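Worked example

This section walks through a single chain of length 312. The input is the sequence exactly as stored; nothing has been trimmed or padded.
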Amino acid sequence: MGWANHSSLMGFILLGFSDHPRLEAVLFAFVLFFYLLTLVGNFAIIIVSYLDPLLHTPMYFFLRNLSLLDLCFTTNLAPQTLVNLRGPEKTISYGGCVMQLYISLALGSTECILLAVMALDRYIAVCKPLHYVVIMSPQVCQQLASVSWLSGLANSLIHATFTLQLPLCGNHRLDHFICEVPALLKLACVDTTINELVLFVVSILFLVIPPALILLSYGFITRAVLKIKSVEARHKACSTCSSHLTVVVIFYGTIIYMYLQPSDSYAQDQGKFISLFYTMVTPTLNPIIYTLRNKDVREALKKLLSGKLCSL
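Given that input, the structure is written out below as tokens.
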């Protein structure tokens, strides 16, 4: 009721980095640069993995899903952030805040599960190579991707709705540059212990269990790789797995810092910069990491570019 009575009429003022006016121009260029890189890099991954028959494998099917997810995630946040960094009015409508919260929660949760699914794919490819094609059939891949997307959607519907029920009693100055759960909880004029408990439980489900399973799978992968006698085969296994592991460390490292630290130790300015990193920079790093460390993707990009040049 508090949200409907107050915030739905006036929306929110996103304080963001307004206490650092000189920094805003730099951050505007920063966000714009990484947003454009995200668009170009992830679109390239999607197009190349779809057009090149050699990349029609489970690994690149999941990578295509990851790129689509990153595109949607950044596009949900970057335009509004750019508007607020550039203009004097740093506001967002109630509907815009709600949409931003639901979408970012859904996509962020989906990525948590999808990265675990990608680790499972690498585990089967390295540890059970003879059964890989049978186990990771197109139907199984589609089912695993669907589970990732649906679990993220379910978490968003439950978690965001629970947060939006909190009364704000007229508070509409959000000390952040996006509508994010920890910042929204600080606006509530009632005890948020239950909400923080829900946030902690959800964080365990999406930020502790998936990376634990990923580490477990990479433990088995490491043991299997050490048994490979061929240096070339060992190098190829390490190359494909290290790309995914790098993405996992960057993604989980920043987001775990945000959501699993105690609320009383949450430094708002520090939190904003961490949020800026995982919302704007991380989606850019994924295609760069997979492109630079993956020979197949590099070759596919070269073929695509040369094909375009020849057609001109």
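What to look for: DSSP finds twelve helices and three strands in the chain.
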